[in-house]
Amino acid sequence: QVQLVESGGGLVQAGGSLRLSCAASRRTLGNYAMGWFRQAPAKEREFVAAISWSGANIYYAESMKGRFTISRDNAKNTVYLQMNSLKPEDTAVYYCAADPRMEVFPRGGPNYWGQGTQVTVSS
Q: Nearest to residue 46, comparing CAs of 66, 60, 33?
């Protein structure tokens, strides 16, 4: 069982930055890909980014490229999402996810999910 706990959300003005963190409770996440999704009010959850265990493979949703950066520190069992140039439309609950299969992330199918952290971008 993998438990994921997100942190770092909050209120930020448009154009600002936030860094989200997701800590995994399991002692080791060997071979687990990790990633981020988000869900805005009245919208479906959407894929943001994913990173393989080694960090060699990274996926981004097209609309996130250039503004968001995913990274991980396996020694800390933590994945990060650096978000720059934030826009009001980035307002959403951001969820961390983990799964051994990197390919399931763009389809929204990871097995393990965190509780989410709210990000609000004011105009």
A: 60
